[in-house]
Design brief:
With 271 residues, the chain is α/β, with parallel strands linked by helices. The protein is built from 11 helices and 10 strands. Strand 4 and strand 5 form a beta hairpin. Helix 3 packs across helix 4 and helix 6 packs parallel to helix 7. The longest helix has 18 residues. The site of adenosine-5'-diphosphate has 12 residues, from strand 1, strand 2 and helix 1. Adenosine-5'-diphosphate binds next to strand 1, strand 2 and helix 1.
């Protein structure tokens, strides 16, 4: 079992422009925990602080105050312990075109995190592991994909490679930051189903950042709604969707009158 816990986390950004000094309160007071085998959807409009939460969990930003605990201990900020922590917490980004270096083939992208973690003893064993990883993200036959470069793949296929790369160091926590928002609508459900299957198989703790309440409800155990840096609502997914308490959640739901229509219209599960 692994757990990430945020306790009263605050993140301010100080901006200076000549003599003008402003502070952006990106995250105001966030407390929640994310456990193995569970998915929490973090929902809210652009600029509400969702990515800042993800970036603090992955140590790309340091909280202004409050604590982030991994398995009960403060998240390390430097040295070998930080290196180890980073293997345990991986991220899938929004843009599959920007997140894979076009100069390297898929094998390179996937084997690198494995080699950094010394996950095999020979080149043959590494190749075998990369093949298995490609099969897990349904890029088959794996041999056909291994030596290709990112530009030879579709957006959906690239995002599957990005998911495989996040899984390569065998993480315990996965943060998916708008993982399908740049994909063609017809590909989204396939990629989300894949993430959900892997999350269950590996019993990962997953934070799913999205604008989309329909997929938040379908793919998450809990929904957390952010508004202007505050977590304004947090509860079991059905509860939040069916009985929203906060005005902003009600407004979001009002803007998406039929959250289930996505699934009725999208039987297509193709790559
Ligand atoms: P979201 O992911 O919900 O779109 P963000 O977490 O990216 O929101 O941003 C929250 C707020 O913090 C926004 O007002 C954004 O402009 C600001 N912000 C985020 N990162 C930085 C930064 N590095 N420097 C200054 N302001 C930032």
């Amino acid at each position: 079992m692994s757990e990430i816990r945020l306790e009263h986390v605050i993140k301010d950004f100080d901006l200076r422009n000549g003599l003008k000094h402003t502070t952006i309160h990106a995250v105001k007071d966030a407390s929640f925990s994310l456990e193995s085998g569970k998915t929490i959807a973090l929902v809210g409009e652009s600029g509400s602080g969702k990515s800042t939460i993800a970036r603090m969990i992955t140590c790309l930003e340091t909280p202004t105050s409050g604590s982030i605990l991994f398995d009960g201990k403060p998240v390390p900020r430097r040295g070998k312990a930080l290196h180890q922590y980073r293997h345990n917490v991986q991220m899938v980004f929004q843009d599959p075109f920007a997140s894979l270096n076009p100069y390297h083939n898929i094998y390179h992208h996937l084997v690198r995190p494995m080699k950094i973690n010394h996950l095999a003893d020979s080149e043959d064993e590494y190749q075998d592991k990369v093949m298995k990883l490609l099969e897990r993200v349904e890029l088959t036959p794996a041999k056909d994909f291994m030596w290709r470069r990112p530009h030879e793949l579709s957006g959906g296929q690239r995002q599957r490679v990005a998911i495989a790369r996040a899984l390569a160091p065998q993480p315990r926590i996965l943060i998916a930051d708008e993982p399908v928002s740049m994909l063609d609508v017809s590909l989204r459900l396939g990629v989300l189903n894949l993430l959900a299957r892997i999350q269950q198989e590996e019993q990962l703790a997953m934070l799913y950042i999205t604008h989309d309440l329909a997929t938040a409800r379908h793919f998450s155990d809990e929904i957390m709604v952010m508004y202007h840096g505050d977590i304004v609502e947090h509860g079991p997914s059905d509860e939040v969707i069916l009985h929203p308490q906060n005005q902003y959640t009600k407004k979001l739901l009002g803007a998406a009158p039929d959250p289930d229509s996505f699934f009725r219209n999208k039987k297509n599960n193709s790559k």
